[in-house]
Amino acid sequence: MIQLRKVKRPESRAEGLILGPIGDAEILATDEVPGGGWHHVILDGKPTAVAYCPKCGKKGYLDEHTIAADGTVSPSLVCPHQPCDFHDNVQLMGYES
Ligand SMILES: [Zn+2]
Q: Percent of the chain at pLDDT above 90?
């Protein structure tokens, strides 16, 4: 008899995607992070973050977004790089304001 293996489906998260922090070496090495990520940056004297698109890996600045203390970005993130159509809510894992 063939045993069917139960496969757990990926959970769909109502609150959107979680981006992981990337390290200094990665920041210096590339302008693209496949799978996405984020790091702190100072723009015009204000602390904000750079996010890498989870879909195309290209970066965008979050200076026009609000980042809550738990890393939740609002409004939702829209990838600025055509033809990428990423648009979702994201949370920056490990963010400290
Ligand atoms: Zn993108």
A: 57
Ligand 1 centroid distance, CA of 33 (Å): 11
Task: Tell me if 41 sits within 8 A of 60, measured CB to CB.
Answer: no
Is residue 52 within 8 A of residue 31, CB to CB? The reply is: no
pLDDT at 76 over 80: yes
Flag whether the pTM goes above 0.70.
yes
The CA 50 to ligand 1 mean position distance, Å, reads 13
- The percentage of the chain sitting over the pLDDT mark of 70, rounded to a whole number, equals 78
Q: Tell me how far the alpha carbon of residue 42 is from its chain's centroid.
A: 18
Residue 24 C-alpha to ligand 1 middle, in angstroms?
22
Which residues have CB under 8 Å from 89's CB, separation 6+? 15, 16, 17, 72, 73, 74, 76, 77
Residue 86 alpha carbon to ligand 1 centre in Å: 5
